[in-house]
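Here is one chain, start to finish.
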Amino acid sequence: MVRKVVLLGLDGAVPTLVEEYAKQGLLPNLRGLMEAGYYTRALSSFPGVTPINWGCISTGAYPGTHGVVDFEIHEPGEPLDAKHSGFSSQALKAETIWESLSRQGYRTATVNFPGAWPPRDGVTKTIAGEGSPSSHSRFEIRASSCFATANRQWALRDADLLRMPRDVIHLCPEWDADGIGPHIAVDLEPSADGGQVRIRSIDHVVTPFDYVCEVNRFSPWFYGQFVVQGRVREGTFRILLSHIELTNEEPEVILYVSQIMPTDEISRPDDLGAKVVEHVGPMIENSGARGYERGWVSERVFLEEGIYKGQWLVRAARYLLEHDDADAVFVKWHFLDHLAHEFWGQIDAMSPWYELGRSTHFEAIFQEAYRAADAMVGKLLEALAPEDILVVVSDHGQLPHLKAMSINNLLWNTGLIRLKSQDPMVVDWDRTRAYAGPCLGHVHINLKGRDPQGIVNPEDYSMVQSEIIHALTNWTDPDTGVRPVQFAVPIEEGHVFGQWGPRAGDVLYFMEAGYTGDINWFPLTSDGTVLLPMSRDLIATADYGEGKFIASKFQSAHGCGLPTRRLGRGTEEAILFVRASEFDTSPLSNRTGVRLVDVAPTIAALLGKIPPNRSEGCPLFRRDTPAAFGVAYTGSRGEGS
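Its structure:
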């Protein structure tokens, strides 16, 4: 009888909240694992962000070996501001635990796991997506959207027939000129409680529906056909009436349309996704704050979509276990990270967003989300036999976000970056000696012979490293005298922090707790401002990836400093639970210093298998058989990238 294993990833789950809520009796399944299984706080690898540390979890290797050294990746030989996704399997340079187990005869599967898409071994079954927090995806037919009279996106009168405009319907310009809907008839129907909206399909390509929307209640799922790049694709969506006001001369109505996801081409093999959707219901890939941030939906709907996604992931995992004969399933839910970034300030008295009168309301939202995570654990336990293994792990914790620092503005102020113009901001690479990025923790030197526009001579390399470190660590917060960059080191010392290889920066910098130094959150700006305190009045309207200031959209932060940091109600540490008969509550099982790179070799040891071939972690228990310890490492550091 094959011993099954399931790993449930809870992105951004914070140990302080898990422990507090478990003690209060809100998390019976996780509390049971604490009492009868194994629980510890675990340390992420620097920088403590999503793709890096799910890579550490899945490969058992440090970033320098598995190659994902930043949230996004800078490839050597490309311009210093070029970057690529850190979520693709093609970014990983080390074998994963599912690939290793598959190679040793296990039937493996992944669902929404970073580093799993596209599958590399041709054997592991894979269901979308990439496990990214992005509000868009490579799989979607259209991102979630909103149609409202209030902002004049379209005009509406009582009993008028409406066809949504084509430029709103279409995902992108390369769609076929005859792109399809959903085309919907919308009728206003006054009623005693303030009005209703009746929506009716008017296109033969959408499964016919006639539905009366109620405020903040999702419609059933609808099916439609959409032309994407000349091909007809079937997709699923649902609609929610966010707001209706009929007392004005011009009625105000807000209709929210969920992310439209296809029912095919979301898996390998191709037919697996359709089978899962048919069995467990339509999927959404993004359950983030896109709708809430734009004012389309309430925090209740934001929470409801996130919980739906988590429930769907568990149902999909159970389908793979119970109907597809999977032996090992790896699944990841991102919503707890979204929730913290959006609302952490409402529950942490240290935060500039904190309001005592509202904290109870938002505490209840956090409790409900963590209870949903606990329910996911319970559903997975139901599908596992007593001898099977369940691992529950997060990739990092959260800290309150107090102040944001622009590392590149500081480098510009000190002359290490030079500009051709400030409006627009254009870097003069022929005079720029250093540039931070792609995201956080790394500064790259513009080195002659290595970088395409390099100007720093190799003999001056160490001197420029020292100049960068001096600039970073000697700048002080003018309000407090604190140095936001706690320390910085040359990459030659990066092995201490799991960083090496050609993708890594030439200098690593570590932020003080509460300060962020994320380049995508606070890029080069024309005013050259280096530090901005977070506040309710500091509004950011841009989206991630636009190269504009967005730091004030995040009430929590992680990954900018050491993985041991604690502040306010938060900690950078991760959670790790294991339900397996080998674990008990002895001091050995609860040792300190557990790292996320220990997860993959622990799973391999529990199954009596060899860990991934570049694994550098250690199993978290002892067994007399040599197979329990597997192969710790087979290469030399630096080869992984």
